[in-house]
Amino acid sequence: MHLKDKVAIITGSGRGIGRGIAMFLAENGAKVVINDPGSAADGSGEDSAPAQKTADDIIANGGKAIANFDSVADYKSAGQLVDQAVKEWGQVDILVNCAGILRDRMVFNMSKEEWDAVIQVHLYGHFNMISHVSKIMRKNQGGRIINFTSNSGLLGNIGQVNYGAAKAGIAGMTRSIAKDLEKYNITVNAISPVADTRMTADVGSNDKSKKKQSIFAGMKEPEFVAPMIGYLASDNAKKINGKIFYVQGGRVSLPFHPSPEHSIYSKKKIWNLQDLDDGMHYVLLRRKRNPVPPLEELEIPGRDKPATDLLKEPLKNKTIIVTGAAGGIGIKVSEALSSYGANLILNDPGSNLDGSGKNQNLLNELAGRLEKNNPNILTSEHKITEWEDAEGLINTAVSNFGTIDAVVHVAGILQDRMIFNMTEEEWNNVIKVHLTAYFNLAKHASAIMRKQNFGRLIGFTSSSGLIGNAGQANYSAAKAGIAGMTRCLAIDLGRNGITANAIAPTAMTRMTDSVPEQIQQGKFNEEQKSHRMELDPAQIAPLTAYLCSEQAWDINGKIFYSAGKKISIGHDVLPFRSINKPSAWDIDDLSVMVPDLLNGINPSA
């Protein structure tokens, strides 16, 4: 009884994987709260029967369980769920965030409601629960939090921009919250499960009935996911923190971190586009594929006809929107795009770092400077966090220049706080500016780009989301979400000659200046700090411009790092090491084998 008398909350546990987890934890001695509002797979409707039945079945088997029907998508309701657990059993030791819905649609057809519903249940649901539970676990100096991510976010999937963004965001916040809570003996990990459930029932599969089946194949029942959850919830896993695991049947895998895989380094301070094109194709993209190449019947510049020369205004007559244009990186990106001949619409409310205030002077000054050499410069005050305003911005580009060829989403704010102190407002503000605004723009732009058979979507992600940073659960979730959205956008739009890529920049800006000195001292030695001070935002601009060009027609769904003279491509988040068993795992066996899986890898965040 590895979990004897531990109090566990499992969201979404009325059916499927969640139910299997609840049954397993109860069998191992835990007192469980079965949370499930009983919605349909798309989140509609309510039914208390699934949660109540799971609780009744546990009690009938001699366990302890209570049912709860609150929605984790609402902050107050999530608090009521946690309060019920504490009122019933006095504490919360384990939180398993399993609740989820689907609203699949190709991005160019996806509605605001379909985006909001999925983001609210998955991404906000995780934050809401962890926000409430972390306060209790911190007070008790211990706890286990297990989150649910997905291949759709880590690798990408068709028609799931909302789901992919949410699930990648969950992976990002897992890495950061693990750092927030590790000093309080609280671990935070995530799994990406594969199992046959009602959410996967409509996903097609090839008929493999005639093929020989390995004893390690199959085992897709949701119950096979549960043992790994039980292990991570146990004291045997107390040193494992900030990790992402793939779990399918009897296989538990460890994926590559989305850290830099291959790098190129410039002999000059600023890359020129021709050298960058060479390094991109000769080094960074070797053995990397375009997940969805353009249709053969399309005439694609760079593939079927010559692309515009990189040395001769390669972006001439291309219409590009730049958000966050009046900030550090945004200014330098705008200057570079203008110098390469682009028609620019510069968007920036001129907010303070935390998103407060408004000052259009900086944007107007930038536009005035650029107009001296490029007459095709417009400014925009559209509020891109709002659906209608984002559409208005895209329409402004088309009405003034006839096309929309690229969206470069640099805009961002910071509202840093440790997870147990972060407010609902601080979470929401950061998610909206970074993640929701990018969806708004990508949705409206992609509908037009498809008609053109050309388009470039470039989102700015961050190492905070890809690797993790303390005090930035909101920022990490948003930035990792942009990476996940990028992977899904690439699959939805690639056949139409549209590419989607993301850049994780490192440069000295007001955002990096805001990092407290004590954190910088802990992360960087004097030599590293000196090197960081030399990282010019202008060094980010060439990669951005290149990805907007016709030469980059075959670069799609990739995550790049740009820091000074160095440009790197991120690892695909694929499994590189696994443990396998031709039957269900148990906690004892996993306690022996998972340390082997992590051999040579720091088990902690």
Please, could you describe this protein's structure?
With 605 residues, the chain is α/β, with parallel strands linked by helices. It folds into 2 domains: 7-255 and 575-597, 3-Layer(aba) Sandwich (Rossmann fold), CATH 3.40.50.720; 307-570, NAD(P)-binding Rossmann-like Domain (Rossmann fold, 3-Layer(aba) Sandwich), CATH 3.40.50. 40% of the residues lie in helices and 16% in strands. The protein contains 19 helices and 18 strands. The protein has a 9-stranded mixed sheet with strand order 3-2-1-4-5-6-7-8-18, sandwiched between helices. A 9-stranded mixed sheet has the order 9-17-16-15-14-13-10-11-12, with helices on both faces. α1 runs parallel beside α2 (49-60), α4 (112-140) runs antiparallel to α12 and α9 (328-339) packs across α18. The longest helix is centred in the first third of the chain and has 29 residues, at 112-140. The chain is globular and about 75 Å long.
Query: Which structural class is indicated by helix and strand composition?
Result: alpha/beta
Superfamily (CATH H level) name of the largest domain: NAD(P)-binding Rossmann-like Domain
Distance between the termini: 27 Å
The amount of beta strand, in percent, is 15-25%
In the CATH hierarchy, the architecture of the largest domain is 3-Layer(aba) Sandwich
Highest-level CATH class of the largest domain: Alpha Beta
Q: State the low-pLDDT regions, or none.
A: 203-209
Main sheet specs? 9 strands, mixed
CA-atom Rg in angstroms:
24 Å
The count of DSSP E runs of length 2 or more, i.e. the number of strands, is: 18
Q: Might you state the CATH topology name of the largest domain?
A: Rossmann fold
Estimate percent helicity. 40-55%
Q: In the residues, how many domains can be counted?
A: 2
Our count of helices gives 19
